[in-house]
Amino acid sequence: MTTLMIIDQAPYGSWSGREALDMALSLSAFDQSVALLFTGSGVNWLRRGQASDAIGQKSVEKNLSAAPLFGIETLLATRKDCERYSLTETDRLPGVTLVDTAAEAIADHDHVLFAG
Amino acid sequence: MNDASLPERNNEGFLENPQAWAPEVATAIAAEDNIELSENHWEIIEFLRGFYQEHGMAPPSNRLFVKAVRQKLGEEKGNSIYLMQLFPGTPAKTACRIAGLPRPTNCL
Amino acid sequence: MSASLSYSLVITAAPWASQAPQSALALAQAIIQGGHRIDRVFLYGDGVHLASSLATPPSDETHWPVEWSRFLAEHDIAGIVCIASALRRGIVNGTEQTRYHLEASNLRAPFEIAGLGEWVESRLQSDRVLYFHGGQS
C-alpha cells in the first residue's frame, strides 16, 4: 500500500504543506511507503537556497532534506509547474523526479491525500 | 559545571536555547541521569547536533531517530537496543536533552 | 443489504472558519444511521479548534464543539486531537498544561490528545478514511 501526499501550496504562506510533511514522516515512522508530489505553487518547496530567517520561519528546504534519511525517497514534481516558476534542474533540490501530470503520479499510488 | 552555571532550561531539563549548548553542558545534563558520556555517546550527540544544524529539526519521533542513526551509522548502531543502552528511557528524548536540542513534541 | 463498513474521519479546518466540521458531523450521523461504524475522528491542523472548551458562539448559533462532543460521547467514538497541531494553537489538556507550565487547559471532553500514530492506525484499520478540509485560499 503506497501513499502519495500532495503539496500544492507555496511554502511559508500556508502551514498545510508542513503538516503534510509531518503526516508523511509519521507514515514513514511506521514503515509505510510514502511519496511527496509538489504541484502548482507547491513546487517552490523545492527551490534551493531558501533564506527564511528573515521572516522568522524555519526553512522548508532544510526540513525537506531530512525526508530521505527517514525513508521518504520519492519526491515528485509536475514539469509544467517547475517551468512556470523557473525552477530549472540547478535551482531544484537534488533527487526530484519530474512527472508530466499529477494524474500520472496519482495513478501510481493506492492512497492520495492533502493535509488541508 | 554545577546546576547554577547551566544555561536556562525548562521543567523537563531541555535547554531553552540550543545555541547555549557546550560539551560541558552535555556532561552536566547527562550526569543528572547518571550517564557518564563515552565515545559512543558523543558520536550520537554529534550526529544529532549536526542533523539539527543541517535539517532545522531533530528527528521528530523515537522511531525516526533510530531510522536516521541507522541511515548514517549503520545497522549496528541504528537499532533501539543500542540506543536505549546509551540513552535510557526514550532514547530520542534523553539524547536530545543531552545534545541541547528542543524537546520532541511527541507527535508520533 | 450491503456489508457494514468502518470509517475514520479527519477534520483539518476550524469551526466558524469553514463548514468542514459541520459537513463531517452530518456524514458521521449518516454513517451511524446507516449501520456502519466509526473507529476514530482525528482533528489535525486548524481542525483542533473543534476541541476547544472555550468556544462561545452566540446562543442562537449552533455550537459545533458541543454538538461534536455529544455525538462522540453518545456513540462512544474516540475523538483524537493531534498533539503537535494542538500545542501550536493553544488547545491543551491537564497533562500538557503541567508539562509546559501553562495558565489553563481547555480540551473539551471526550476529546483526547495523541500523536499522528493514531491517524496511521486509522489508515490501517478503517475500511474508509475521509478527509474534511477547508477551502483553499
Automatic annotation (TrEMBL), chain A:
Q: Which family does it belong to?
A: Belongs to the DsrF/TusC family.
SUPFAM superfamilies according to UniProt: DsrEFH-like (SSF75169)
- What's the protein here called? tRNA 2-thiouridine synthesizing protein C
Domain of life where this protein originates: Bacteria
InterPro entries given in the database record: DsrEFH-like, Sulphur_relay_DsrE/F-like, Sulphur_relay_TusC/DsrF
Lineage of the organism? Bacteria, Pseudomonadati, Pseudomonadota, Gammaproteobacteria, Pseudomonadales
From TrEMBL, chain B:
First-level EC class = transferase
Q: Does the keyword Transmembrane apply?
A: no
Q: Which UniProt keywords apply?
A: Cytoplasm, Transferase
Q: What is its EC number?
A: 2.8.1.-
- Keyword Transferase assigned to the entry: answer is yes
One Gene Ontology term from the biological process aspect of the record = tRNA wobble position uridine thiolation
Q: Name one GO molecular function term.
A: sulfur carrier activity
Catalytic positions are: C107 (cysteine persulfide intermediate)
- Predominant localisation class: cytoplasm
GO CC, sorted alphabetically, is: cytoplasm
State the superkingdom. Bacteria
Pfam families linked to this entry: DsrC (PF04358)
Subcellular location(s) of the protein? Cytoplasm
Q: Member of which family?
A: Belongs to the dsrC/tusE family.
Q: Which PANTHER family match?
A: SULFURTRANSFERASE TUSE
> What exactly does this protein do?
Part of a sulfur-relay system.
Name this protein carries in UniProt: Sulfurtransferase
- Native species: Marinobacter oulmenensis
Q: Which lineage?
A: Bacteria, Pseudomonadati, Pseudomonadota, Gammaproteobacteria, Pseudomonadales
TrEMBL record, chain C:
What are the record keywords, sorted?
Cytoplasm, Transferase
Where found, per UniProt?
Answer: Cytoplasm
> A single GO CC term, please?
sulfurtransferase complex
Q: What class of enzyme is it?
A: transferase
Q: Which GO terms describe its molecular function?
A: sulfur carrier activity; sulfurtransferase activity
**Would you kindly state one Gene Ontology biological process term found in this protein's UniProt entry?**
tRNA wobble position uridine thiolation
Q: Which domain of life is it from?
A: Bacteria
Give the EC number(s) listed in the UniProt record.
2.8.1.-
Family according to the record: Belongs to the DsrE/TusD family.
Check the record and name the NCBIfam families matching this protein: PRK00207.1, sulf_tusD_dsrE
State the name under which the record lists this protein: tRNA 2-thiouridine synthesizing protein D
Source organism per UniProt: Marinobacter oulmenensis
Q: What is the lineage of its organism?
A: Bacteria, Pseudomonadati, Pseudomonadota, Gammaproteobacteria, Pseudomonadales
